[in-house]
Amino acid sequence: MSAPLIAGLELGGTKCVAILASGPDAIHERVELPTTSPAATLAAIEAVIDGWRGFAALGIASFGPISINRHAADYGHITSTPKPGWAGTDVARRLGARYGVPTEFHSDVVGAALGEARWGAAAGLTDLAYVTVGTGIGVGLIAHDRPVDGLTHSELGHIRPQRLPGDDWGGTCPFHGACVEGLAAGPAIAARTGVKGQDLPADHEAWEGVVHALAQLLHTITLTGVPRRIVMGGGVMVGNPFLFPRVRHSLRQSLGGYIAIPEVADVDTYVVAPALGHNAGPLGAIVLGQQALLSR
Amino acid sequence: MSAPLIAGLELGGTKCVAILASGPDAIHERVELPTTSPAATLAAIEAVIDGWRGFAALGIASFGPISINRHAADYGHITSTPKPGWAGTDVARRLGARYGVPTEFHSDVVGAALGEARWGAAAGLTDLAYVTVGTGIGVGLIAHDRPVDGLTHSELGHIRPQRLPGDDWGGTCPFHGACVEGLAAGPAIAARTGVKGQDLPADHEAWEGVVHALAQLLHTITLTGVPRRIVMGGGVMVGNPFLFPRVRHSLRQSLGGYIAIPEVADVDTYVVAPALGHNAGPLGAIVLGQQALLSR
């Protein structure tokens, strides 16, 4: 049985990727578009997808926060984003109605998680987490092949971690100050050091607080009981691969042997880099479309 | 259609409750037994259930840690508990084989969550959390009517929270020191103050750290994106109801308006006491049995 053709859309803060595909080895079209105003961006996306034929479903993985509650009036909308003009923008209802196919809508990081789980660094695993560390910090949690959600999607990047002894820097999150995002995202690193993460040497002392905050996030994610593997992506991780062994070491120390399960004990295979690169999100949108088909 | 008759077992650290029921208004039998050695306790449970007829499934909600991975050799076992004699005890395989009915096995706190979601303080909600604050701190998370799990069950009571400024007390958790359980469970309160929680006056300064740690746990649980309501039970909460308004206030302050969703904004209905009392766990076991029937 050949996999059905799906239209996938990754809607990002700076660019969008629309793909027509049934998997990583069957990408029929792939178009990148800049993210500008909502009206111009959605019109450009529609101009692309209008030309496609034969797709059975539509999957959309979007920056957020977004509303994923199908019973809510604002379902399918980007809700309270600070991105100028985008708060309150309807994405999934509009595109779902235009193309008349089953449509699934979720966060960009859930999309990346689903892509990595199907074809990437967590291939074959039903339960995983994808953590992006970039302009913000986001977590996509998948259990039994489905996104973990309910009231809304995960916002675990905004948990308040235990701090390193003697470190009382206030962090940069406008809501929480020293939450994980306020301590370890790209803008936090730049604010604390005056240097962008990609230019900060590996032996700079500021990395210690970044590593500790990220390990605390992974400690928490592990204790949800869900992931069999944690995939860490985003600009800060991709640009500074020396962070991986340090985060793994800090996570192991923090857990203190509490979760006595082989998957966690082997921390080198428990915390890994992504495998799909810039296609994780778009391919995740394909998986979302497949799930829309299944749950129709 | 009348609900099927289910055999339910809550296996607790000090006592077990076996019930034959189809719901809270149809409890045919209810037997309490002390939890002693594994051999004596399980034999006593079997002597009770052997006398029951006509149940279609078996649900077991157990103290832990437990193995809920059906593909693992130790599925259905209590795994690494410090409770003398119980580590490595097979519960669910043994009872499931003895009675030959569909059997579901999960944590005691997931059981309580399912009971409160079906018939109690979260009735009608598909997504909720149950937090017990007693000898330990446990979290049961339910999304779309199902327990949130994967690698294992939740252990979120062991996250390491941000601390109150100036508070560097080391906590009592043998694994993590000042995790939430090490700061706010009954034994932690007693260790810090020399007084048991039930005898500690409401204006004792030690409650400040307890409230803060519990609010940080609720902050984290909220940011998983799952619960539409958080039910807080266990001896420390039930014995000290003044904690509820204080934990709600601290949670609201900690979130800082970040999750702009009505369910969370109305913190008085977001964080609530249980409604089923000592029957939450046993009735949760009935729900687990019903789920075993459905997924057969």
UniProtKB/TrEMBL annotation, chains A, B:
InterPro entries tied to this protein: ATPase_NBD (IPR043129), Carb_Metab_Reg_Kinase/Isom (IPR051804), ROK (IPR000600)
EC number: 2.7.1.4
Coiled-coil parts of chain: none
Catalytic activity as recorded in UniProt: D-fructose + ATP = D-fructose 6-phosphate + ADP + H(+)
Assigned keywords, A-Z: Kinase, Magnesium, Metal-binding, Transferase, Zinc
GO MF assignments: fructokinase activity; metal ion binding
Necessary cofactors: Mg(2+)
Keyword NADP found: no
Top-level enzyme category: transferase
Membrane-spanning parts: none
PANTHER family, alphabetized: FRUCTOKINASE, TRANSCRIPTIONAL REPRESSOR MPRA
The protein, known as: fructokinase
